[in-house]
Each structure stands twice: as structure tokens, then as C-alpha cells.
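To: structure subgroup
Subject: Chain for Friday's discussion

All,

I'm putting the inputs and outputs inline so they're searchable in the archive.
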Amino acid sequence: MVVTSAYPTKTVPEFIAYAKVNPGKINMGSPGVGTSPHMAGELFKVMTAVDMTHVAYRGSPQVLTDLLGGQLQVYFAPIAASLGYIKDGRLRALGVTTAARVNALPDVPTLAEFVPGYESNAFYGIGAPKGTPAEIVDKLNKAINAGLADSTMKARLAELGSSPSAGSPADFGKLVADETQKWAKVIKSGNIKPE
């Protein structure tokens, strides 16, 4: 969750308080309806009962340009896209959306430290077509888990603000099912429709 360095709030509680006395006056940018940054912002709106106006763009570069230019007030930006601006002082990170602090920004609190239960993680996984033989799935799973355990790979992903988690195909299936259920509730409460 980033704002410009000139924005009047410096912490998540200050942002929430400011948003509550300025309903509908905060523009929240995202690279499109249903994207991870959009959904992270919608979850924040639901959990804090703040009123922000969603402004959808066609990609992160345009969101960052308008945030830096003052047309937007907040962006639930991917760390990789915003890290350079945070480090050079043009953006202020109020919080990370993950359950734990991230190595790339160790002094930035999680949103859950102020909004109990908040967590929004963009995740990536590898799938195989239905009916792929179990021995092939197992072989791929072992190779992927070995890659994620590699110290060079872990260090590079940490630099980008990612924290890989290895697991089984069943673990990933459960994650997908749980996340589908969670975000379906946010979509319904926010009345979010595909464009």
C-alpha cells in the first residue's frame, strides 16, 4: 500500500482516519478490474469500512505515473513495481499486504498489524492438464520444490519482495480453493463486475 511522499498520512491508522473523514475523495488506482492490486484495495475497503473510488488502468506503469503525479492517492502496488520509487523516496509504503513483513522492506509493517486478519497475496503456481499421470505431476513437483529451495533463487525472489513456498499438489489445490472462496466474498460485497 503506497502513497506519494507528499501525501498527508504516514501510517495505516492515519490513512484510515483520513479516509473516514474524506469519503469518496481518495482515488485508488489499479492496473485493471479484478487484478491483484484492485482486489487488495477492495479487501482493505471491506475490512476498514472506508470509501475509496477505484480507478482502473490498463497497466501498472500508468497507475504509477498518475500516483506520482497526484491524480491518485493510493495504490496497492506490487513490490517489484514500486520498490525503486519507495527506495528513492518518491513513494511511501504504508504497509505490505502479506501476512509477514517482507525482506525487501523490513521496516514496513503489514496491514494486518493495524487491520487484524488482513492478507492479500498474489500467488503463482504451475498446473498440468487434467489427467496428467500422477508420476509426472510428482516429478514436476519435486523439481519445482528443489528450485524454490535453491539459495540463489530464494535470494533473488526475496529481492523482488516474494517469498516462495514449496508444497504438494494437494497444498496448492487447497490454496486455490481457499482463495477462490475468500475473493468471491470480496467481489460480491464490492459489486465488482468484469469489464
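Points worth raising on Friday:
The beta strands are 2-4, 26-30, 52-56, 74-75, 91-93.
The chain has a mean pLDDT of 93.

D.
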